[in-house]
Amino acid sequence: MEHPVAKYRCERCGYDEYRMSAREVGEIALGECPRCGGDFQVVECGKKPKELAEVEEAIGKRFEILDFSFRRGRGDFLVETRDPSRAFLKTFRAVKKRGFLIAMREREGELHLLTTKAPPVEKSNIATNIVLLLATIGTTLFAGFYLSSHNLVIQGAWGHFSNAILFSLALMAILGAHEMGHKIAAWRHDVATTWPYFIPFPHPYIGTFGAVIKVKSPIPTKEALVEMGACGPILGFLLALPITTMGIALSEPLGGELFKVLPTPLIFALLGIFKFGHFPSALNPHPFAWAGFIGLLVTWLNLIPAGQLDGGHVVRGVLSKEQHHRLTRTLGFTFIVLGLLTGILPLTMWGLLILLLFGTPHGGALDDVSKLRGRQKIIVGVALAIFILCLPIPL
Ligand SMILES: [Zn+2]
Ligand SMILES: [Zn+2]
Fold this sequence. Notes:
This protein is an alpha+beta fold. It has 2 domains: 5-117, Threonyl-tRNA Synthetase, Chain A, domain 2 (2-Layer Sandwich); 126-317 and 364-393, no CATH class. Helix content is 49%, strand content 16%. It has helices at 50-60, 84-97, 126-149, 160-188, 222-250, 266-276, 287-303, 310-316, 321-342, 345-357, 374-389, and strands at residues 5-10, 16-20, 28-29, 40-45, 64-71, 74-80, 100-107, 110-117, 197-200, 208-212, 264-265, 392-393. It has an 8-stranded antiparallel sheet with strand order 3-4-1-2-5-6-8-7, covered by helices on one side. A two-stranded antiparallel sheet has the order 9-10. Strand 9 and strand 10 form a beta hairpin. Helix 3 (126-149) runs antiparallel to helix 4, helix 5 (222-250) runs parallel beside helix 6 and helix 5 packs antiparallel against helix 7. The protein starts with a strand and ends with a strand. The model has no long low-confidence stretch (mean pLDDT 92). Bound molecules: zinc ion (ZN) (2 copies). One zinc ion binds next to loops.
């Protein structure tokens, strides 16, 4: 349906915009300038800029447009429809092809569609990813070699170098699966992301801080948000589990020092108890066991439901912007205090990092109105179960 349009200009500040309006040229809307509250005068009517006509047509196909204002690609459409989530997703795809982004918000019980011109997707240089990947293979090999040559893992048949390779391979596979989980979810929902940036960390026990993927285009729906957050930890966990099981089976039950350094993930402790009948704190590990241990800890750290962490994305699919921001701050403070109380200072560091990194609330998906459906609720449940299974228990 064609809606009448008029271009208004403020007499005081010069601000102008197009509005759905049947007023004639010269008519005045008293005090309606959205910028300064001055009088808004109709300076043109009936003529629609091409951009406005395009988005209006796409939106009008699936929503009833009750009102709109529009200026240089930025529009605010007051709309109604019976099934907002479906209508949104189809409209999102239609306007995306024409170079627009669209978001859906609820304000005072009214449904608004906000449009803007899509910024060009940043080009990223894959050389950086490759260099970081190679560097991380290097630092994990170094860690594996150090662990082996300092008798912190069991000695393989072929010496330190084979131990280094086993450790690096297992850890990189877990982290790689984690990152591929994110990438697959991004492909599924047509979200542009970079390739993973692995973080080399020349620490003799660990070798890496995991990896990150940068999201380059907005995430359209809560479904996409939940899947993009959860699929990484789920896939990483699914690989960490057999590697850990195998690693524990190949370890010696006693005589090791390594596991006293960090708190033990719950599932690791359970597998150890299942295999040896006691808490595996003195395990003399096969390199796979230590790689699995780190993989499980990394999974847990990522699943903390704060800010833009993987778990943050998942939980933002369920909570509102304000609720989630409150949760983020609460978690940050809790970790700081817990770390100080227990003397586990990395926990305090992590809490500080959460507060510093996620000062601004998680914007959520473009459709911030629809509720999650059954399938994604299951994914949220699975992520929660993994979070609990990976929970580090301090001794
Ligand atoms: Zn004005
Ligand atoms: Zn992740």
